[in-house]
Request: fold
Amino acid sequence: MLTNNRPRTAVVLAGGGSLGAIQVGMLRELLAAGEEFDFVVGASAGAINGAYFASNPTRDGVAALEHLWRGIRRSDIIPISLDTVLNLLLRRDYINDGRALRQLLHRHLGDNLIEGTSLPLHIVATDQLSGEEIVLSDGPMVPAVLASAAIPGVFPSVMIGERALIDGGVANNAPISAAIARGAERIVVLPTGFACAPKSIPRGAAAKVMHAVNLLVSRQLVHDIGHYADRAAICVVPTLCPLEASSYDYSAAASLIDRAVVTTRAWIAAGGLQKTGAPSALHDHTH
Reply:
C-alpha cells in the first residue's frame, strides 16, 4: 500500500554473474536509508537476489543474503568436474548441467511460490526459440530463477510450460520496461556494472561468455535508461569503478559487498536518490 502519496516504486535488479554481490551492498544501504519498494523485478543474477529480497524485504533478510554471498564459491554455482568434460565431448549445448545452482536455490528458497513473496516478484527470462521476453509472476520460484539465470552455452535451458527458457539478460538484462508495464512510476535500478579495469582476458569458455554478455548488457542498460526516461523517474545506483573482478570470479564477493556499501552510502548522502540518469561508470570507458 502506498503512503504519503509517494510514487509506486519498483526495484530492478540487473544480471551480472558473480558481480551480483554488489547488489547486496546496495540493498543494505538503501534499506538503512529508509527506502521502500512496492515490487521487485529481476533478471539473471538479479533474479536470484530479487527472489531472496522479495521473500524477506527487511534488513534481516538482506543480512541473510549477504551471509550467503560472503560464503559462496564458484564451485557452488559452476563446478568443474568430469561431467563438464563429458558435456563438451558429447557436444551438448551447455558446459554445466545446472545441478549445483539448483541445489543451492532449493536449500534457500525451498518450494516457495513466486506469488507467495512478501513483495510482488517478477522474474524475467527469455524464450530460447523466439527471443521473446517472458515475465514470470507466479508458479514455483526455483525453476523460474534457474531459467532466468540460464546463461546460454553455460547452463541448459529450463522448460516451464511448453517454453524452453534461458537467461533473462538476453532479452532484457535490467528490465526497466517490465517494471513500467507493471505500473512503476519510479524505478530504482541496481546494476552490477562491468569489469572496466581487468588485468587480463578471462580464461575458459564460461568466463569468456559471461564477460562478453556483461559488456553487452551494460551498454543496453544505458540505452534503456534514456529510452524510458519520460515514462518513469529512473534512479540508478552507481556501480563500482574501477572494477577488476570479472562476472565469473566469485572469490571477490566479500570485497565487492564491502565496496558497494561504502559507495552506496556516500551516494545516498550526496542526494543520489533524488537524481535520475545513467551514472558515468555505466558508460563505455577504460582505465
